[in-house]
Amino acid sequence: MDEKDLELENQNLDSANEPEANPEASAQNEGATSVAYEENDNWKFEAEAHTLNGSVVENDMFEIHIPESTGTASSQYETAQRPTKPKQEEQAKAAVKKNGIKGDKLKFILLAVVLACVIAVLGVLGSFYYSKPNTDERMNPGNVALVVNDTPVSIGMYNYYYSCISQNYISYADYGYYDLDTSKDFSKQKTTNNDGEEVTWLELFEEETVDQIRYITTYYEKAVAEGVTLTKAQKENIQSSLDGIKDTAASNNVSVDRYISDTYGDYCGYATIKKMLEQCYIAENYYQRLSVTKKYTDEEIENFFNENKTDYENVTFAYLQVPYEDNNAQATFENCNYYVNQITSEDDMKKLIPTLCKTLIESYVEQGYAPDFDTCAELLSANIEVSISTKETGFLDEAINWLFDEETKVGAVKAFDDSENKVVYILYKVSEPQPDKEEVYSVRQILIMPDGVDTSTSDVELTDEQLKQARTEAQKILDKYNEGAKTEAEFAKLAEKYSKDTESTSNGSSGMYGGLYAGVQQGTMVQSFNDWAMDSSRKYGDTGIVDSKYGCHIMFFVNRQPKYLYDCETDLKEKDEKDFTKSSKVKLHKGTMKKTKVATPQASTDSE
Question: Is residue 85 part of a domain?
């Protein structure tokens, strides 16, 4: 069942509701955030670097997301995120540590066997074997582009990530999201990376590819080390995806390896995609387990707030948006400043709307946003007041700084020129900075729907018999939970198995897991759901069954807290996640990296 089918009034949950990973501090590696280059690419064969059997496939997996298999040009890079901000969406995560054999005697025996194998391999294949890249994910030195911690990454795997990331930027640059001319040399155009440094676009593509691989490898290594495995359903999904790619390749009359390499780059083949998919799921399983088990104390969250207080405070203000008169910025600004001196209250601002916003109102009426001038003026008057935080990126920095300045008192008025949008804003400060104290709640739920219910529409009406059937099934599942360890992690597993609300589980596309709804504002969900979660007696771990027109909701209460503390907790999780992944060491092999994919202007190639 789709998430929107569960909602009653407001269908837009906070986008921060997705569970975040929270790595253990002990897993972090002090200061190891730099990328090093391996100057010598003439490797000697190492015992851990390669075997002739299939075991290496298990130990060298890399992931980003499941590729589409439609074969159309537009579907090839749909794994790349849409840039609501010019930054890369965090996607799946992963990589692996090999399991060593304990004991000196076993080590020496193993070493002797491996050395014998090396001699035999050299005799048959010669040095060519070690220097040639391949699509089979054999991790001979010539196929390793970089190493993350102890895990080698193939040229094909690097090219897969690079294709998705570079094409993401290139595609959206064509729509005006980025200041990038896709017909010109990317090495001669500058941008800013996530650290605020000026780099070329080619440098940015490589940086973000390496960062993505580092992120995924880190989670995958940790997952394997802790015994995380694929579920039966995930194995079936992987095979289904691979079969789809095979079918698409066949329909294009090319081999599957050729089809994949044409799409994502040289040396990226069927084995590469298989590794990526396996690693994706395993890393995601570990990531989601962390999201359930890692908790922060109230003291930790409060301390984080106190250290970053200004980031979580909002200022309320009223404003007028005045378009340039006859495209004359100076005249418009001077006119606004004349009225600034006459404003002493919000009511004064509202009275000025028909005069100062005349052009804006006429434009709105012409576009059909309001039936007439007076109605539109009333709508603007009713929405004159808004709140903003220092993290807001869609408003003038100068205006934000003024609003949060201690010397700017409540009741202060000032005009600000926005030359980029050809408007002048008149701002009236309504409140001092303060955190958002509205209470939000977080719960997990398992939605049980009776058989035969049409979930394609939100207009659902259950009969008494259907609701009785749903209650019976819900009680059985709750009884099963109560017979077990009765932990949040166990509840999340049951949600993954039984919930019909796929958007709050990994069966959907939202990135949610275990039936989680986090940071929910009052009135967002159906009334019975909301009332149960907002009951003042609720405490962590409370469970219950709630009826709604959609069926029965088996509830697990996580917490209720002010919005600003929820935001702090969310950002604290994100900070720990970044620290965790950046602790991994990356070593690029300069010789092999010369064989990796490099984005070229669209005028030069159709693939980039």
Answer: yes
